[in-house]
Write a structure and sequence with these properties.
The complex is a heterodimer of chains A (295) and B (241).
Chain A lengths: L1 H32 L6 H16 L6 H29 L5 H24 L13 E4 L2 E4 H23 L1 H11 L1 H6 L4 H26 L8 H14 L4 H22 L4 H15 L14
Antiparallel strand pairs in A: 1-2
Chain B lengths: L7 E12 L2 E12 L3 E5 L6 H8 L5 E8 L2 E2 L4 H6 L2 E4 L11 H8 L6 H14 L1 H5 L10 H14 L4 E5 L7 H16 L3 E6 L11 E6 L2 E6 L1 H6 L1 H8 L2
Parallel strand pairs in B: 3-8, 3-9, 6-7, 7-8
Antiparallel strand pairs in B: 1-2, 1-4, 4-5, 9-10
Classes of the chains: A mainly alpha (295), B alpha/beta (241).
InterPro entries (chain A): ABC_transp_permease, BCAA_transport_permease
Pfam families (chain A): BPD_transp_2
Organism (chain A): Allorhizobium borbori
């Protein structure tokens, strides 16, 4: 019984780590820019394929393949800002949120199809994965799962330090909380937006490698994590970073338990049920901002 | 106090601005000299806040020119802040999820080094000791008066050459307003250059060197505060008595 319980926990934590990674990128952009990046899924897929190409066609070592995915995601995020977002912001800001959503849907579709044309539709094996497992008594912990959780925890810590302790992080948080005030204090918000999209793209690149190492590479690779990340964001409250990470791990564990108890087909519906319940009872999310205002 | 010989820190020449089709400011011109305390008074909705937002770049300039120390300002608020313009906006515009200390430190975003940040922080805590007590409190949990203090403190942390203060008394209890104006008076005595907008000229009667009366986006009268307060017909016409 213990081995089954631990297996469920390990599966839940691994999935939760992947969801958290996808969610942080999405939530960071929404929280600081009010931008729902619908191309996030394609950026995630791009990271997975770039790592694949770097390791197979170019024969680079695993570490460099991983780095290539990060760079590709970051470049994609940077280009998204330079080519699309900055131009949309330059015009009518009141329609930015809807315009950027439509624009990124198009970019996501175009990028996914470009990957399809380049690599074909057949699933490919991600070479950046480790085999074997750590066996402790009746409990088996696959190294790949341990690696994913460890990498995600390290990345979360780096993002937390970046946002909490650095000048750039303070500027990102300030812009997210009050754009006008940040500008008045000397923060160049356009540069902040660029930095946020680069950071989010880099995280998407890593996430693409991680997800494909657990499944397989295919052009729609990023769609499922993106959908789940969106669910986590809604449950946590859009733009709430710590809440999103908590929701990612919590819901992934719930999904794993439901799949074990009721069958795999009930995993995703259970998440949808939680989203609907949250939208009914707490429309601003479980961790939605609670403000005390006194006059 | 004689201020005539001092060069203007801020100079507005025929400034025009507004929102979409609405033209709010219709050719504003005046100077603010170094160490001077200038107040713009006027009824609500006649362009006082727009004036400060135009100077700090939040509202685009449509015509005329704004100079800080003789240098023409660009349209970017962060670049204008870098010229030494510290804007304490209406409604404070604090960062609600940051602590008081983090809000203050954001004020020093452009500060050259840590020593300068510490020096400014000491200065702010000396002037506003309550902020030191509340330094770890989240901004959204502060009272209206405390928020206003943080807004002023954050403006001071910018170390700017001129402080733009937008209606510091708005929505506050009389006792708190008195405290806030006490702080502003102390800032003025220490030689700070201040441009303040206010609805009630009596509040700045003892503080301001010069007062401009703004009506429908244009300056209709300028002079010492005592002169305006002695002109009942002006007060009745423009400020409702």
């Amino acid at each position: 019984m213990l081995d089954i319980f631990v297996s469920i926990i390990v599966a839940g934590l691994t999935t939760g780590a992947l969801y958290a990674l996808a969610t942080v990128g999405l939530s960071l952009v929404w929280g600081s820019m009010g931008m729902l990046n619908m191309a996030h899924a394609a950026m995630l897929t791009l990271g997975g394929y770039v790592a694949f190409t770097a390791s197979t066609s170019l024969g680079l070592p695993i570490g460099l393949g991983f780095l290539a995915a990060i760079v590709a995601g970051a470049v994609a995020g940077g280009l998204l800002y330079v080519l699309i977002v900055s131009n949309l912001l330059r015009h009518d800001k009141s329609t930015f949120e809807s315009n950027v959503m439509i624009a990124t849907v198009g970019i996501g579709i175009a990028l996914e199809n470009a990957i399809l044309l380049t690599y074909g539709g057949q699933p490919l094996k991600q070479p950046l994965s480790v085999s074997g497992a750590l066996v402790i008594g009746p409990v088996t912990l696959p190294y790949q799962n341990i690696l994913i959780v460890a990498v995600v925890l390290v990345l979360m810590a780096i993002v937390a330090l970046l946002l909490g302790k650095t000048r750039m992080g303070r500027a990102i948080r300030a812009t997210a909380q009050n754009r006008d005030a940040a500008q008045l204090l000397g923060v160049a918000v356009n540069r902040v937006y660029f930095q946020v999209l680069v950071l989010s793209g880099a995280l998407a690149g890593v996430c693409g490698v991680m997800v494909s190492s657990m499944t397989q590479l295919s052009p729609p690779l990023g769609n499922d994590p993106m959908l789940k990340a969106f669910i986590m964001c809604v449950v946590a409250g859009l733009g709430n970073l710590p809440g999103a990470i908590t929701a990612a791990f919590g819901l992934a564990l719930l999904e794993a338990f439901v799949q074990f108890v009721a069958g795999a087909r009930w995993g995703f519906p259970s998440l949808l049920f939680v989203v609907i319940a949250v939208l009914i009872w707490r429309p601003s999310g479980l961790f939605g901002r609670a403000q005390i205002r006194r006059m | 106090m004689s201020v005539a010989a001092k060069p203007p820190v801020l100079s507005l020449t025929n400034v025009v601005s507004g929102y979409k089709e609405l033209q709010v400011l219709k050719g504003i011109s005046f100077d603010v000299g170094a160490g001077e305390f200038v107040t713009v008074v006027g009824p609500n909705g006649h362009g006082k806040t727009t004036l400060l937002r135009t100077i700090s770049g939040l509202v685009p300039l449509r015509g005329g020119a704004i100079r800080v120390n003789g240098q023409l300002v660009s349209a970017k608020p962060h670049a204008i802040a870098a010229l030494g313009v510290a804007h304490v906006p209406q409604g404070d515009l604090l960062f609600p999820e940051m602590s008081v200390l983090e809000n203050l430190l954001m004020g020093a975003y452009l500060a050259p080094n840590r020593a300068e940040i510490d020096r400014r922080l000491d200065e702010v805590f000396t002037l506003l000791p309550k902020l030191s007590e509340r330094r770890h409190q989240i901004a959204s949990s502060l009272s209206g008066g405390e928020r206003r203090m943080v807004g002023i403190g954050r403006g001071l942390m910018m170390g700017g050459q001129i402080l733009l203060i937008d209606e510091p008394s708005l929505g506050l209890a009389p006792l708190i307003i008195e405290q806030i104006y006490g702080v502003i008076a102390e800032l003025s005595r220490s030689g700070r250059t201040i441009l303040l907008v206010e609805e009630n000229p009596a509040r700045v009667a003892d503080l301001a060197d010069k007062l401009h009366l703004l009506d429908d986006g244009a300056i209709v009268w300028s002079g010492p505060p005592a002169d305006l307060l002695a002109r009942d017909e002006l007060l009745a016409t423009y400020l409702g008595g």
